[in-house]
Design a protein that fits this description.
Helices cover 20% and strands 15% of the residues. By secondary structure, the chain is of the alpha+beta class. Among the domains are: 52 residues, no CATH class; 77 residues, no CATH class. The strands form ten sheets. The chain has a six-stranded antiparallel β-sheet, with no helix packed on it. Strands 6-7-9-15-16 form a five-stranded antiparallel β-sheet. The longest helix has 35 residues. The structure holds a DNA duplex.
Length: 931
DNA sequence: GAGTTTGAAACT
DNA sequence: CAGTTTCAAACTC
């Protein structure tokens, strides 16, 4: 049984594991000071009851620790007000369906790992609507993520491109692929406790994230539980649970996840994001008292990072710092600060200090990293704390009202000090590469850092940290007790937060795709649930008419139902794209404009048809083959705000189709006008509102390069028999059976690719290349035809419309190079040869005749009395005769006379020649006779 | 559309 | 590396 509970840390057993929703603290933008209140929501998970595929057990225990529905209502109201005040987009998520429901207690017996992914939809701008680009630009620049070799257990969450309404972004991406992408958000929680309690879910983000908790690079998703003032967590991959020490209480602001110590002695540090600069603010509100901030103190770095981590293995981890204002003297007004940490900069991160004015500083520090202090005033300025809301938050409020601070980043305008929960740089390994060829070190793309949002345990409120720099995303939040269909937030109108009505059944079996209808009916989100096994990937993709679709891996807490959705934003994404043809030596980097906007990546196989690439803020390094495809037929769309998701074109089409289907089925309407003009490839015909990128491409209207569908039946499309696979493409719209050439079987696919490459390193290279000489195409390997004469499509050379070359081993090849010019030359040669033969024959005949005449025995002088003309048969006469005959032959050929006619003409000419000779001789003789 | 042919890929 | 088998596309009817 899984209980969704509001957090009452004090009441929870220390050893219990709970999944807690961590709200990311969104620093306010330009709006008036917003209240800074964080809600720490915990989800008690009965690990024993949680099956890998069953989240249906989510219930709300009835005990004093739990929020009641009214509390949730209050939270909602507060949230709404905060949203209004801060004009920020908050991301809320509801973990668990029945927040108000059952009193089932947790009977935890087993560790449940769940991956929660949130599909966010970019609606243009970042949550902080105020010049997000200006916020922490340097961080974006510094943020890089390595997506290679991420643990498969991580499920990444990709953030859709901000303004993208593109179908391209309506794509389904496997979780592993997401992890491979920088902006993936990995959200894994482990429930290990048998008793209900509050827990904190540590969200790992492969990319630098706004907030990061912990951990060793090699660690899998971490689960942190707050129990009885202690934070305990379990990090996947670690042998045992990690007890997070030095967090006495979660009550006060000072409470921060600092260190975790595993049962086996491993200590995990909870580190803040890479904050290079301390943020100092003065508290003017006065709402926060020192007492409130007591809890905020730098934690002793008593923990050490797990030794397993290496720099290369480091991955970003989201750590959310929950700061609880002692409201009304009671616990429960947690203020959550989200910090992010990149693995690389793990040690360089700066903790966030929250300093109360006049009382000194209370540090919310994350161990091992520099401390960044924020005064209350600053907090207010940043929107973390609003004077009005602050009082509500502040102590003595018996109510458990929690305010989700949904502004993590403050606009630089408001506060020069930038609180960036984002790591300057993050190197994250990606467990899965979307590209087929698992070649290491091929390509890295700088990409925006994504921010992960925590899942709201109760009340379904989860605040997501949205980085201003990042392109706006929509976060789909499942509403629990909150009003269904309520979209929290966003003054920007971008709808950063999408609340999914609790009534919507987002949950499905593991691996299933759940449909989420976005509020307003303008968009559908498809969430694929994934079990925590890690092998399965889940994707969440949203489809909308004109909206950007984000595909986000979604993990379901027990595999059964997506308990929550988390979102993340990406600032810069480092996408490592591995070309399917590893041999491609050249790696081209496409550096989009640095607009401060994050883009979502478009994942494409190296050889896959790339319909469009939007050159936005992302820095994408593409394999040479990919680039070639891009250059050949793809369109690179400049976009300053969009993120790119590279997928096989067919996936785009697939998503589009799904979108259409869903549109038709659910009869949803795009009720939201989208100002975003930079859409990715949009093949949706109904997307008339703005020019589709697809229209600018050279591809088909659907944005897909024509491709023959395969019909594989036995190869699972994982062998080179399959053209799709051989071309590095995913099967789409194929007729294949038991196809594994898709994202759902990415692991198998990768293995198959590896196997193929082992057999033939050039397996995925184009078979047709340029010959040594010139640019003439030729089959690199050559054909081996035996029967077809290389004149049927069985022959690869013939199919490629190229003549067989020396590389071929074909038998009886008739696929010879026959160009028009060469045919002409050949004909000429043959004609010349024939002519020569004819001439020779004629010449010989004439010569014979002449000789016959010449050597004829002279008649007796008595008979003729005349001299024989052979006396005139000099060499000159013979040459002249031959020339005449040859000229006649040529004339006959020129006239295209038949051979017979030609011979006749030549003979006639020869006769004339003889006549002339005779006449000449006769004259000569006549002249000499009378003498 | 079923059956045959063909040659690349995979296997031995 | 060669021979054989498997496979899917091409082809034929």
């Amino acid at each position: 049984m899984l209980n969704v509970r509001c957090i009452r840390q004090s009441s929870r057993p220390r050893n219990d594991w709970y999944m807690t929703v961590i709200n990311e603290l969104i620093v306010g933008g330009t709006k008036p000071l917003g209240g800074a209140r964080a809600v720490v929501e915990t989800l008690g998970l009965d690990a024993g009851a949680l099956g890998d595929g069953d989240l249906s057990a989510l219930t709300l225990p009835h005990n004093s620790d739990q929020f009641i529905s009214s509390d949730l209502e209050t939270l909602v109201n507060i949230q709404a007000e905060l949203d209004r005040l801060n004009s920020t987009v908050g991301v809320e998520e509801t973990l668990g369906e029945d927040l108000e429901g059952g009193a089932d207690s947790l009977a935890v017996g087993e560790t449940v790992e769940s991956v929660v992914t949130v599909v966010s939809e970019d609606h243009g701008r970042s949550v902080v609507a105020h010049s997000p680009e200006a916020i922490l630009p340097e961080i974006m620049e510094e943020t890089t993520t390595t997506v290679e070799d991420m643990d498969m257990h991580e499920i990444g969450m990709s953030s859709p491109s901000p303004e993208a309404e593109d179908p391209l972004q309506q794509q389904e991406i496997s979780a592993t692929q997401f992890t491979s992408v920088s902006n993936n958000l990995t959200f894994t929680s482990t429930v290990a406790s048998k008793t209900p309690g509050s827990s904190i879910v540590v969200i790992q983000s492969p990319v630098a994230s706004s907030a990061s908790v912990i951990t060793s690079p090699s660690l899998a998703p971490t689960h942190v539980t707050v129990s009885g003032g202690q934070i305990v967590g379990k990090i996947a991959g670690m042998s045992s649970n990690v007890a997070i020490t030095s967090v006495p209480q979660f009550q006060s602001l000072g409470q921060t996840l600092v260190t975790a110590k595993s049962a086996d002695g491993n200590i995990v540090q909870l580190r803040p994001a890479n904050l290079n600069r301390p943020v100092m603010t003065s508290s003017t509100a006065g709402n926060l008292t020192t007492a409130n901030l007591q809890g905020i103190k730098p934690l002793q770095a008593t923990t050490k990072r797990p030794a397993t981590g290496t720099a290369g293995q480091m991955r970003n981890v989201f750590a959310k710092v929950i700061i609880t204002g002692n409201q009304h003297g009671q616990q429960g007004q947690p203020i959550m600060l989200a910090t992010s940490q990149a693995g690389e900069t793990f040690c360089s991160g700066q903790p966030i200090k929250i300093i109360s004015s006049g009382t000194g500083q209370s540090n919310v520090s994350l161990l091992g990293s520099p401390t960044k202090a924020i005064t209350l005033a600053q907090a207010q300025q940043m929107g973390l704390l609003s004077p009005t809301k602050l009082q509500q938050i502040l102590p003595s409020s018996p109510t458990k009202q929690s305010i989700i601070v949904n502004k993590l980043m403050s606009s630089p305008v408001k506060s020069p000090a930038k609180i960036t929960m984002m790591p300057a740089s993050a190197v994250v390994k990606s467990p899965t590469k979307i590209l087929p060829a698992p070649v290491s070190g091929v390509t890295q793309l700088k990409s925006a850092v994504s921010i992960a949002s925590a899942v709201g345990g109760i009340g379904g409120t989860v605040s997501t940290t949205v980085k201003p720099l990042l392109s706006p995303q929509k976060v789909i939040i499942r509403q629990g007790a909150l009003k269904s269909g309520t979209v929290l937030t966003s003054s920007s109108g971008t709808g950063q937060v999408i609340r999914i009505p609790a009534t919507q059944n987002v949950v499905g079996t593991s691996g299933s795709i759940a449909q989420l209808q976005m509020p307003g009916g303008r968009q559908l989100q498809y969430v694929r649930l994934v079990s925590s096994s890690g092998s399965n990937t889940s994707t969440v993709m949203s489809t909308g008419k004109s909206r950007t679709t984000s595909v986000v891996p979604v993990s379901a807490v027990s595999g059964g139902k997506p308990v929550s959705l988390s979102t993340m934003r990406s600032q810069q994404q480092t996408v490592k794209m591995v070309p399917i043809a590893p041999a491609s030596p050249a790696v081209r980097t496409v550096v989009p404009k640095s607009t401060g906007q994050t883009g979502q990546r478009i994942l494409i196989p190296a050889s896959a048809p790339v319909t469009q690439l939007r050159a936005g803020s992302n820095i994408a390094t593409l394999s040479a083959s990919a680039v070639n495809q891009i250059t050949s037929g793809a369109t690179i769309l400049p976009s300053g705000t969009s993120s790119y998701v590279m997928l096989p074109a067919q996936y785009v089409h697939q998503l589009q189709n799904q979108s259409h289907q869903q549109q038709s089925i659910l009869n949803t309407h795009n009720t939201v006008s989208h100002s975003s003009s930079n859409s990715a490839a949009s093949a949706e015909p109904h997307n008339q509102s703005r020019p589709s990128v697809a229209t600018r491409t050279t591809l088909e209207p659907n944005g897909i390069r024509p491709r023959k569908p395969c019909n594989c039946t036995k190869s699972q499309c994982l062998k080179l028999y399959c053209d799709c696979f051989a071309n590095g493409e995913f099967c789409h719209m194929c007729n294949c059976n038991n196809c594994f050439n898709n994202l759902e079987h990415e692991e198998d696919r990768q293995r198959a690719i590896k196997s193929c490459l082992e057999r033939n390193p050039n397996a995925f290279r184009p078979k047709i290349g340029k010959g040594i000489v010139g640019d003439e195409r030729r089959h690199n390997k050559g054909c081996n035809c035996k029967r077809s004469g290389c004149l049927k499509n069985y022959c690869e050379c013939y199919e490629a419309k190229i003549p067989c070359s020396n590389n071929c081993k074909c038998v009886g090849c008739r696929n010879v190079e026959e160009t028009c010019d060469k045919n002409t030359l050949r004909d000429l040669a043959e004609a010349a040869e024939v002519r020569v033969q004819q001439q020779t024959a004629i010449k010989n005949k004439l010569s014979a005749q002449i000789q016959d005449i010449a050597f004829r025995p002279p008649p007796p002088p008595a008979q003729s009395g005349t001299r024989q003309p052979f006396n005139f048969m000099t060499q000159e006469v013979l040459d002249a005769t031959c020339m005449c005959l040859l000229a006649q032959a040529e004339e006959a050929e020129r006239m295209e006379n038949s051979e017979e006619e030609a011979e006749r003409f030549i003979i006639e000419e020869f006769g004339r020649c003889l006549v002339q000779i005779i006449e000449c001789a006769t004259k000569t003789e006549a002249n000499s006779m009378p003498i």
